[in-house]
Q: What sequence folds into this?
């Protein structure tokens, strides 16, 4: 006996009450609960939806869905990190490497033309502005989203926060034009890779959960 | 006598990979039912172990997911990626070698 739409909605509410806030995870748990409840109600038609739900929920153990949510958060973070590493390494491959070589060439020309005392603050300001724009776009998009998805929750600035900029300030006196070129190109590569990860993961999320964006 | 479920823990993801290799695509509860069926009800895969296992395989890029509308709800299906297929073969070979060693050490015949 298939559950009604109202009963499926009740299951979504139930998972929400049990601290499952991500729609992608809710969908999976709701399907699992629904099928188990359908089986229970088929075996014992007098059982009723609520009693069957409590019976099935008991099987998730004393921590309920907490362990699944916690583990899923960790795995989503790992997945994001893996994708980021993959995209970053891809930039070293042909033909993407051509654009990186071009960026390096332009940076090299800049350090030959201007002093580091000028380039250093300009680079910092640009990097911070880019990061803020990226964050604002992400926050605005997430607000527009109807449902929160764990799939794109950790994108895009989680893996390279601002902390490393602090080191650049501390070690300013040790940074020459060669180090500056390498750091600047790496920072741009990080931006490109994190943007690619965010775009790809968002596209994947829109394909898998269109109702979360409707 | 039902087997100690702790003995299966290290092989959980290998079991999932193998089942997915045989079925093309499966959803979470389907995997639980299949394991129960194959072990004549002696082994039951708990939800608390199954989903973290599946999500770990997904994060490692060994399985890919697709969504399907099944009436009034969505269902998440898992299927093996190319890397997942290779990994499944490696893990089965490792497990086979482990069984061989256990046979030698404990002097028992495993199947």
A:
């Amino acid at each position: 006996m298939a559950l009604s739409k109202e009963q499926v909605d009740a299951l979504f509410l139930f998972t929400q009450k049990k601290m499952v806030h991500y729609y992608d995870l809710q969908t999976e748990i709701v399907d699992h609960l629904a099928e188990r409840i359908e089986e229970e109600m088929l075996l014992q038609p007098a059982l009723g939806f609520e009693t069957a739900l409590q019976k099935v929920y008991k099987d998730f153990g004393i921590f309920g869905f907490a362990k699944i949510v916690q583990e899923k958060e960790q795995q989503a973070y790992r997945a994001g990190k893996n994708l980021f590493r993959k995209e970053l390494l891809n930039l070293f491959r042909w033909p993407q490497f051509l654009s990186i070589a071009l960026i390096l060439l332009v940076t090299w020309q800049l350090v030959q033309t201007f002093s580091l005392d000028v380039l250093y603050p300009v680079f910092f300001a640009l990097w911070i502005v880019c990061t803020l724009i990226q964050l604002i776009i992400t926050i605005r998009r997430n607000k527009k989203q109807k449902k929160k998805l764990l799939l794109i929750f950790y994108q895009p600035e989680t893996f390279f926060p601002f902390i490393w900029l602090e080191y650049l300030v501390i070690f300013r006196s040790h940074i020459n034009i060669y180090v500056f070129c390498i750091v600047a190109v790496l920072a741009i590569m990080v931006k490109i890779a994190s943007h690619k990860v965010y775009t790809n993961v968002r596209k994947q999320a829109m394909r898998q959960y269109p109702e979360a964006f409707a | 006598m039902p087997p100690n479920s702790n003995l299966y823990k290290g092989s959980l993801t290998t079991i999932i990979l193998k089942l997915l290799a045989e079925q093309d695509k499966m959803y979470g509860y389907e995997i639980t039912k299949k394991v129960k069926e194959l072990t004549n009800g002696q082994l039951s895969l708990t939800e608390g172990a199954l989903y973290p296992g599946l999500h770990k395989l997904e994060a490692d890029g060994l399985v890919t997911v697709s969504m399907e509308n099944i009436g009034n709800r969505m269902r998440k299906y898992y299927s093996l990626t190319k890397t997942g297929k290779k990994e499944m073969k490696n893990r089965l070979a490792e497990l086979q070698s482990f069984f061989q060693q256990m046979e030698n050490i404990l002097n028992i015949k495993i199947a």
The mean pLDDT of chain A is 86. Chain A is about 75% helix and 0% strand.
